[in-house]
Amino acid sequence: MHHAPDLLLIEDDAAAARMVEEAVREVKPVPSMVHVASAEAALAYLERFPDHPPRLILLDLQLPSMSGMELLERLKAHSHHRLIPVVILSLSDLSGDILSSYDHQASGYLHKPATFPKLILMLQALSDFWFQTVRLVNDRSM
């Protein structure tokens, strides 16, 4: 039996992904998380578990082969995936990337913090908002 994760992290940089995974363990309550390293792996994961989508996708823009922006576009065009909130987590602070992300229906845009403690604070705020406060379409309580 597969349980839907709270968070699907799409990040190709292994060190960055490990840092997010370690920071997520500091969040209370600890969200469940699945990590994939490419847009293609993310699509394969979502197709493999269509009835158990993640509650939130955390997406890096700089991905190999298919970019994060292309993936965002594909997710939002897909009838089954379009309702999953996607929050961009990027090193880019370019206004063009931010605008384009919202233009492609991202639910939020986060600039990767420079320090581990700031990452924990950001992920705690993300968790508090998306998993404790907001009602989501795919909430288990519905």
UniProtKB/TrEMBL annotation:
Residues 6-127 form the Response regulatory domain. CDD domains: REC_Rcp-like. Keywords: Phosphoprotein. The modification 4-aspartylphosphate is found at D60. It comes from the Bacteria. The keyword Phosphoprotein applies. SUPFAM superfamilies: CheY-like. PANTHER family: RESPONSE REGULATOR RCP1, RESPONSE REGULATOR RCP1-RELATED. This is Response regulator.
